[in-house]
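Margin note from the TA: students keep mixing up input and output lines. Inputs are the sequences; the output is the structure of the whole complex. Example:
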Amino acid sequence: MDVLYFAWVRERIGHPKDKIETDAATVRALVDELRSREARYEAAFADLDALRVAVDQELTDFDAPLDGAREVAFFPPMTGG
Amino acid sequence: MDIRVQEEDFDLGAEANAFAARQKGMGAVVTFTGIVRDLGKGDLQAMQIEHYPGMTEKAISKIADEALSRWDLGDILVIHRHGVLKAEDLIMMVATSSRHRVDAFQAAEFLMDYLKSRAPFWKKEVTPEGADWVAAKDEDEDALSRW
């Protein structure tokens, strides 16, 4: 699965993408796995209220299932327009 | 529907004219343009706009589809830039056409409200003090509830 990071999430983690093997059933379980990796992941995911998530390029929430998901992206609230 | 996510600048007048010329039987064309604004101190060195290639185009298309289903529209144009911009540069534009102005105006406002907080763009302002990500405003999220 590709895990992508944008904006300050990318900066905090230090790179834009991880390729990972995971059995995580939900986004939240994936976040827990990532947080346990290293301090910079813990720092990036410290406050989930400050983050948004997309699964296969569709906005969703942290309880979304990851069944068959190929791409998960984490980023702050968007500031387009 | 014409959705473009690009690094290059665009010609607002040419785009507006071309869009209007393509419309058949439409009595109204509304355009909105977003411009990089200095922070009032004259020290904005750059605005960097990051986006999520692939998702950005999909998210904008979905928002435009929603507008087409809610209002009586002829067509929609959205151009949104990314990359490094300066004060006074054009960031984006939307254009809508309709037989009547109310639909064209409302759809343009709807598109803008949703592009602000549902299209995956992130702005970073660079000043002599450093670079800061622009925080999303609660009022931008609240604006969605009126639709």
